[in-house]
Amino acid sequence: MEKKTSGTRGATGRREFGGGSQGRSLRKGLRSDLNLEAKTLSGTGLVFDEQLNEFHCLWDDSFPEGPERLHAIKEQLIQEGLLDRCVSFQARFAEKEELMLVHSLEYIDLMETTQYMNERELRILADTYDSVYLHPNSYTCACLASGSVLRLVDAVLGAEIRNGMAIIRPPGHHAQHSLMDGYCMFNHVAVAARYAQQKHEIQRILIVDWDVHHGQGTQFTFDQDPSVLYFSIHRYEQGRFWPHLKASDWSTIGFGQGRGYTINVPWNQVGMRDADYIAAFLHILLPVALEFQPQLVLVAAGFDALQGDPKGEMAATPAGFAHLTHLLMGLAGGKLILSLEGGYNLRSLAEGVSASLHTLLGDPCPMLESPGAPCLSAQASLSCTLEALEPFWEVLVRSVETMEEDIVEGDNVEEKEEGPWQPPALPVLTWPVLQARTGLVYDQRMMGHYNLWDSHHPEMPQRVSRIMRRLEELHLAERCLTLPARPATDAELLTCHSAEYVGRLRATEKMKTRELHREGANFDSIYICPSTFACAQLATGAVCRLVEAVLAGEVLNGIAVVRPPGHHAEQDAACGFCFFNSVAVAARHAQAISGHALRILIVDWDVHHGNGTQHIFEEDPSVLYISLHRYDHGTFFPLGDEGASSQMGRAAGTGFTVNVTWNGPRMGDADYLAAWHRLVLPIAYEFNPELVLVSAGFDAARGDPLGGCQVSPEGYAHLTHLLMGLANGHIILILEGGYNLTSISESMAACTRSLLGDPPPLLTLTRPPLAGALASITETIQVHRRYWRSLQITKVEDKEGPSSSLLITKKAPQPANPGSAKEMITPEGNILDAGRGKATSVSPVEESTAGQTKSETAVVELTQDKSLEAATEEATLDQTTSETATGEATLAQTTSEMATGDATLDQTTSEIAMGGATLDQTTLGATPGVATVDQTTSETTTGVTTLDQTTSEAVRGAELIQVPLASSTDNQTPPASPVEGDPPHISPSKLIGNLRTLELDNEAQEAPESQSPEEERLLGEATGGQDMDDLVLMQSFGDNADTDQAMFYAVTPLPWCPHLVAVSPVPDTGLDVTQPCQDCGALQENWVCLSCHQVYCGRYINAHMLQHHEGSGHPLVLSYVDLSTWCYYCQAYVHHQALLDAKNVAHQNKFGEGMPHSH
């Protein structure tokens, strides 16, 4: 008897399943798409060369980046026998032409000369960069390190090996086009990406950077390139952590054609754990990567986020990095290369490398000690990143939802206060030694169950025989350990079924045909024959035998090719072709033989809801049941509301029943994977199962006559691979439904290959998830948010609070005799961007009208007396309008301050250099009060002093650094209240320079803990995570020094950008700063193009220069107002030697003299 219809499983007439021309066409299509018979690559490549240890810091033996890092790794790999398991490749030197794919020839030549420098010369050159040292062998080793990665690229793309790892030093991901940075000379991963594109014609490359420091060098290389997807997850702490770049925040998503292809996940607190990293991969990286479809994955594999590393101060574990590696192995057909970056605790570094290498070799991921869910800070960072990316990736639509109030109130899990960070003890990882990887259980006797009245019934005996035949054709069966099937015992059956029901089915063995027909009619969608009981008993026992083999360590995982199916079977009733609930009985059997309530995850991807399994475990919190099925608002078999998303379990089991309800046909790979990434895997990792059982029905497969869905064999392979990271790899697939013989054979074969360790085949998603699918997933998430914190990634209204730049201050000791402003310097290095923090309380952020952005306000406070009149005066810097009110403050022009990049505070004029433009405080001093920077509103008020940014582009796109000047009578720094960001209007700058923000005090203050000269010489911010050096900005305010308080802004330009090559020599006729705009004749705020030397007006006049850039592509322009230089592509100011000729000529024309300090 078939299952009853009205959207049910049953067939109302005879049909030839998998036969005829249509069936042959489907078979051909499935096999062509899957290409299961293609050669499977194997082998993990390893490059490890002792020559890479032939350099160190000559002037500091304790420098963290030293040869002992590779020594520790090698010792660990030998101890675990990993070196012998890998395919060893000889390192080679990268050629200059290869390095020039990323770096300039001049820079490479300069680095080459370091081979001949003495220690003093090396140190002088190193000091011109941030956080580097040089050795006569640095250049040679850096070339060898880059070449090592290129050798692996050739091996992987040349089909010599499947994946590989380069254990190299020095690291590379901070190195830029013409700049050493953060221990890095050449950017190995960036060079490898360009090399793969050029030599191997690879079109799409994914770079994953999990080093605890942001790989700004890699990001800057590709941030305009849509052929490279860059993903970085790093410590940021609102800009307090090195490299202190606004470009490291979530709002930086690339430029031009590369918008959306740069992904930053910034951690804003220390102590981030495995759950936080895994959540970032599941919610962001994997969905985007599947849409991007990379052909090669490169990993900047730093291990300084591991617990025990005092530089990163994170709490990830080696096991966690094994899981990250496993998740990446499902991409690009398994073409994955890890390149060592940072990591400075020798033990954790060695174990992190070892764990990742184990995974590359195909070993199962270790159990996570306590995965839990992402912390609140991580949730906020993920939410911000998702919202920034959603416009660019269809797969991320509705990835972040607003949490309803009642959901929040239902959450009984609170974020615990973290104490001071202490390096915890690393768990000891063990790796199983297995007789075989995958177990296979099958018995031909199960074909004895058949329909006496309808030989074409969908649940036919050929289902299992055709699967086995296909496994044998593909030589997959011989790669498995075949286990003998056995009947389930009564004791095993009685763990889930009543004795009365078992006896009732046993009695059918002696019934006559008419009695069998009548007995079958007593159940829903059931037929019974004399062999039914024996076959059902054998099917259930076979699964129990496989469970025993997995838990005993005979095999790692397994597949059970069994019938009849079981997931509809209730405690006391057969249902939907099912008699004994094999998965449920197997779960109880696993718990019985393990001796405790083993945590078991049951994933049911059969297209029909497993009502029987749900009912058996609905009060049991030790079993997490997740079902994805067609529901069609209760009209699809098994009908009713039992499979509704609102069903969540009962009593102690509340929250442990999860239903994803498809309310229509055509669900395919994109829909199932969206459910996996957003719902199934987050909950599964939080549950942390010890065994995974899959009710593997393949009636959602493409071509199935009952399911009406479109999941491909490749899709099932990916679903299987993603589940294999759980439960130490202990996963068993049990056949349930699936009624197209070709579909089920190809799908089970694809899953078997994944279980055997083969990489999932390339998966081409032809469409994004359907709107109906997303609605169903979201509906289930809303129901379960109160029970699973991993689902609580919701929209963050206040983006600045959790993840954007805030005011950063540090007290510094004040000298007895403060120097004049002329003696103050701004140290070179990397700029700390804190421009979008809010220093003082202002009116609440108001919601804008439709189509407008929310207002974003930063506050500049300049208080010089406490009179009532002063309190009523305001100066407003409006960044978006050209309206100014009476009493406006002017944006003064500077000359020498701009050229040197120094920010100086002049005692007479109180001018603050802003990267070439100064804020004249003489005017503001006459009208003390609060100066507000309002970036979105056009409102101006009488009596309000407005500093209008329309007079210059000096501040547009630049990073504003708030520097509080606190009085000695009030040592409290104004709190940094968050304000909402506006990513579409603020283009993140790749700013380099080092502006440290400090609280100034005329009284002696507590000095920070002293450091030894050796510690100071570590240049440790690149990997030290140490506090920023003190910068003492002294200013004498006369008699008012005790009460005056001020806050000012400074802008530091980029010291280099990749578009400087577009600068043309100044024409012989020179430059005329009085020249009007060539289009409109405007005389104010004109710019000259440094490529063609045409003059046009700025964006706040008629935007003709912007139009010129968009039409010509010329990147760099020089302002005739303040002589600042702007790069349209970098969206930042630039100050570089290549620009000085044009600036000097313009300065001579404007002021009648050359620029001071034009060096």
Task: Describe, in plain words, how this protein is organized in 3D.
The protein is of the alpha/beta class and about 1150 residues long. It has four domains: about 375 residues, Arginase, Chain A (3-Layer(aba) Sandwich), CATH 3.40.800.20; about 230 residues, 3-Layer(aba) Sandwich (Arginase, Chain A), CATH 3.40.800.20; about 230 residues, no CATH class; about 90 residues, Herpes Virus-1, CATH 3.30.40. About 30% of the residues lie in helices and about 15% in strands. The protein has 32 helices and 30 strands. The chain has an eight-stranded parallel beta sheet with strand order 2-1-3-8-7-4-5-6, sandwiched between helices. α22 links the parallel β15 and β16. α10 packs parallel to α11. It is elongated and about 115 Å long.
Topology of helices and strands:
Layout: H1 20-34, E1 44-48, H2 68-79, E2 87-89, H3 96-99, H4 105-113, H5 119-126, H6 138-157, E3 163-167, H7 188-200, E4 205-209, H8 216-222, E5 228-235, E6 262-267, H9 274-292, E7 296-301, H10 318-328, E8 336-340, H11 346-360, H12 376-389, H13 405-410, E9 436-441, H14 462-473, E10 481-483, H15 490-493, H16 499-506, H17 513-521, H18 532-551, E11 555-560, H19 582-594, E12 600-604, H20 611-617, E13 623-630, E14 657-662, H21 669-687, E15 691-696, H22 713-723, E16 731-735, H23 741-755, H24 771-784, H25 800-803, E17 857-863, H26 868-872, E18 874-878, E19 891-893, H27 896-900, E20 912-914, E21 917-919, H28 921-926, E22 929-934, E23 944-946, E24 961-965, H29 1013-1016, H30 1021-1024, E25 1045-1050, E26 1086-1089, E27 1095-1097, H31 1104-1112, E28 1116-1119, E29 1125-1127, E30 1132-1133, H32 1140-1151
Parallel strand pairs: 1-2, 1-3, 3-8, 4-5, 4-7, 5-6, 7-8, 9-10, 9-11, 11-16, 12-13, 12-15, 13-14, 15-16, 18-22, 18-23
Antiparallel strand pairs: 17-22, 17-25, 19-21, 20-21, 24-25, 26-27, 26-28, 28-29, 29-30
